[in-house]
Batch of 2 targets.
Target 1
Amino acid sequence: MQGSGGTKTQSFAIVGAGISGLSCAKALTAQGHKVTLFDKGRGPGGRMSTRRFDTPLGETMADHGAQYFTARDPDFQSEVLDWERAGAAAHWPVISDDAWVGTPTMNAIIRHLSSGFDVRWNSRIDGLTKASQGWSLVGAAEDTAHYDFEMVRRAMLARFQPCWTVLYAFDTPLPGDTLFLRDYGAIGWASRELAKPGRTGMERWVVQANASWSTAHLNSPAETVADLLFTALEEGLGSPLPKPIAQSPHRWRYAMSAGLGAGSMWNPALGLGVCGDWLLGPRIESGWLSGQHLAQSIAADDRVAA
Ligand SMILES: Cc1cc2nc3c(=O)[nH]c(=O)nc-3n(C[C@H](O)[C@H](O)[C@H](O)COP(=O)(O)OP(=O)(O)OC[C@H]3O[C@@H](n4cnc5c(N)ncnc54)[C@H](O)[C@@H]3O)c2cc1C
């Protein structure tokens, strides 16, 4: 994130329109600032993305990043209620009283949040250069420089665990009444997409390997992983399953952050800040709170008085 401009309304560029960047964008806008977001993705999602894939019965889709989230902080709870009123989120009581999902897909939340902003999709930013009146974003890596040693140090300390995820589509409902599995053999999480509120269409399951299995299979071919996790799903559901009509594997190399116990970082002299789940913890709520934390640090900075 970078700020530039006069003494009242400031202009901010936010790199990354995931939940943390959008949380910060919303709070900065409420403070009276002007915000533009840049995201390398083709559309809304980040790690709350929903993947479309082809099957012989037509295109379908399933959440393939975050599967659900909890809301425990009062401010985040009130934000989630706004999403619910907008039709972008719903309770998923199958999991717990405080479990939520995006509706009709997880990325609907990011779509909802980003709709009010100037978001430049397909815009990968590789670095920043300091100009006399603020910052320039750089799309080519050779021009980058490091301006804040502590931010760089923290970023280098950030640790992520990978997650192999496979989406399977079927032309018939799977036998049994299991709706989700947690921590079963190689499986960290598996769930029936149609068990989530707002989903329609053909039967499909999302299977996510646990972190140690994903690490051990990091460089395995995607089709091998899809076969192995299908066998794991059969074991987890306790019966042979019909062959999937389509499958879509994806390796998340940087899925779950370890968190560094910091809300966000803001350098008032540079007008440069960072937020994200990598600072706070591997959850949607943490990403949102980190974005709020950064906006609060900016509001408390008398150089950026709006
Ligand atoms: C497989 C998986 C399962 C998960 N399960 C859960 C769960 O069940 N519950 C839960 O609460 N959380 C879960 N999480 C974690 C949750 O998704 C993240 O904590 C949260 O989405 C982080 O939000 P963020 O905005 O910090 O980062 P991101 O969502 O990663 O957003 C960062 C954005 O920045 C963009 N970007 C990155 N680099 C650049 C660049 N150079 N230039 C421009 N744009 C860039 C990306 O395209 C992305 O849109 C899961 C994550 C994964 C991957």
Target 2
Amino acid sequence: MLPFSFATTAQILCETGASRRLAELCRERGAQRVLIVTDPGITKLGLLAEVLPGFISAGMTVQVYDQVLADPPEAIVLNAVAQAKALKAELIVGFGGGSSMDVAKLVALLAHPDCQQTLQDLYGVGNAKGQRLPLIQVPTTAGTGSEVTPVAIVTTGATTKLGVVSPLLLPDLALLDADLTLGLPPAVTAATGIDAMVHAIEAYTSALKKNPLSDLLAREALRLLAANLDEAVHNGGNREARQAMLLGACLAGQAFANAPVAAVHALAYPLGGHFHIPHGLSNALVLPHVLGFNASVAAPLYAELAPLVLGDSLRAGSAMDQTEQFILALADFSERSGLPTRLRDAGVPQAMLQQLAADAMLQQRLLVNNPREMTEEHALAIYQVAY
Ligand SMILES: NC(=O)c1ccc[n+]([C@@H]2O[C@H](COP(=O)([O-])OP(=O)(O)OC[C@H]3O[C@@H](n4cnc5c(N)ncnc54)[C@H](O)[C@@H]3O)[C@@H](O)[C@H]2O)c1
Ligand SMILES: [Fe+2]
């Protein structure tokens, strides 16, 4: 067996309704002063309405920073840090999708009273030093898995993103409460759910760090996500399906936190950067085409995953036959959910494909994990087929 290392969030609480006990969970960690980091959509939806009263009745001080934008720019992080410092926050809660959770991670680091570092110092792998404030993550989308990853992604320029990767960013608690996701619109449910599936698939074929624990998590994640995505999209009020999606996304997050994602994400990032296509949809648009490209090498692994998505409808055949069925089944999720399935339908101009391929090559951090080597010519051909 190849040696491997595995790290994850210390505690995972998977319980429908548990966010109503958030104040208690913060107090158990010794905190009296808490900053909740979220986005304006979440406060408008009233998702904090049942969460905040617990803080007041416990005599705790709680503030909400609700200005997080999707694909958060640096200024948002710095504003949230300023509020946390002014509050003398003792614990940070990330409450929302990947954007809010990523900002919360950086606030927990930068608002620690002993922190000597700036945001600029943190970019890259292993650059964060010292301690962070206690950190609880409460996802309201079932997608990024940020509640269990050591990664925070920040938008640093017009079209560029940088990541902070450090074991210090692994939260203390991930709280998975389906009640918070009941109102997630169908298109967001579908896109974020497909993002989570991609995490599982890319972890399972990850070239450098694939390992027995991440495999186990990726398989169970994909089974849960594939079995519940249609129900979550078309009958969003189904708590069982919503809780299964949250767990699936969390397991997929643990898988890819330890066996990183690859070319689907490398080709998806430039779509988000240039056209602000949501992260999950960017992944969905290139997914079938990247898997098709990888199939000549990765078909045996895709064939292992195929029964988890297709169940009894998987027909017997070679690994390549079953890979084709697998790819079609994944593409069908987008189709059935009403997501655009071609780049042209998502507002991408054909004239930009060459630039996108050049930008995808900048994601070497991800491309090294791909089961098949990908050049700029390959990336261009994939975008052309996806167009
Ligand atoms: N840290 C990681 O490991 C990691 C991994 C992948 C992606 N990311 C980052 O995560 C971000 C994407 O996260 P995301 O896809 O979760 O989206 P998001 O956090 O950007 O949220 C998208 C939209 O969904 C809305 N929303 C969230 N929960 C809702 C709910 N329950 N009901 C109704 N609306 C709701 C939000 O208000 C927002 O408008 C990107 O910045 C990406 O770079 C991070
Ligand atoms: Fe992702």
